[in-house]
Amino acid sequence: MATIYEVAALAGVSPATVSRVFNGLTVSEEKQRLVRDAAASLGFTPNKTARRLRKQSSEIIALLIPDIENPFYTALARGVEDRAQESDFSVVLCNTDDNPAKELRYLQIAASEQMAGVILSPASDEVDLGAIVSLGRPVVAVDRTTPYPVDAVKIDNRAAGVAATTALFDAGYRRIACIAGPAGIETTEDRFLGWRQVVTARGTGVHEGYLRHANFRVDGGFAAMAALLALETPPDAVVTTNNLMAIGALQALIQAGISPEKFGIAAVGELPFMTLPPETVVQVRLPARHLGRTAATMLLDRINGDTQPLRTVVLRADVSPPMPPGKASL
Fold this sequence. Notes:
It is a single chain. By secondary structure, the chain is an alpha/beta fold. The protein has three domains: 4-46, no CATH class; 58-155 and 288-317, Rossmann fold (3-Layer(aba) Sandwich); 157-285, Rossmann fold (3-Layer(aba) Sandwich). The protein contains twelve helices and twelve strands. The chain has helices at residues 4-11, 15-22, 29-42, 48-55, 71-86, 100-112, 130-134, 157-170, 186-201, 218-229, 243-255, 288-303; strands at residues 60-65, 90-95, 117-120, 139-142, 151-155, 176-180, 211-213, 237-240, 264-268, 281-285, 312-315, 318-320. Helix 9 (186-201) links the parallel strand 6 (176-180) and strand 7. It starts with a helix and ends in a 10-residue tail after the last strand. 45% of the residues are buried.
């Protein structure tokens, strides 16, 4: 069996560089290529059992997300896995359904199975990271932060809410409602505060009944939109704080006999399988895959001994496509 020294000699690098490559530490792309090509040529395989005993942890990362059926989290998970695979780590995907008890069970499993670290989008601000943190395992919060002192990567959600609402105002809509996710969740709060900031600044104020909380799923968006349309003065446009609720809102409009092309809709997040003309819905595109990749990079850095101060990385969203000027007629 080939040794690390033979790989180093063939690649023209030091044994330390070979070690850095297979431990996921920062190495130039050229040196990574040389080392991996040499390893493949020699049939070299890192001794994962010895590495696990030395580190007292596996080369497995736990990824806890609220809803794998949401394309946002699917893309986020892909970003985590892509980056983990580059460093020869595997990912165990755990779907929490935003259920704190289910989340806690997965965290306990991650601790008992000596997983190398955890990336999670917390189910609530009362997430219990005690078991995993007490073992010294690194944790990165993604999309939502935690009260624990851990690294985090998230989106500027308030700016996303501002962008979605501004696009509707710029298109001529004035009675703009908001379908937000469950109260108390960080992303919900930030996005609807962005909506409130714009409707207040643009002079229309916050209409009583125009803010509706719902679950993050299609049925929640449908029920909230139906309730908005039943108001004495219904809105002429709506911001939804995630993509699946926007689909539900569209379904409610169609069922009520209202053309989505005559009603302003802006969604924070990309709508899967859009069959309407692209200009019908303003989509604030979230960098989900980049979010996951960034979180995985931060976690791998900690696993490999990074001791720099805790970091919170904030990514920006993009609005696309712009909505042409228009006015709803209800």
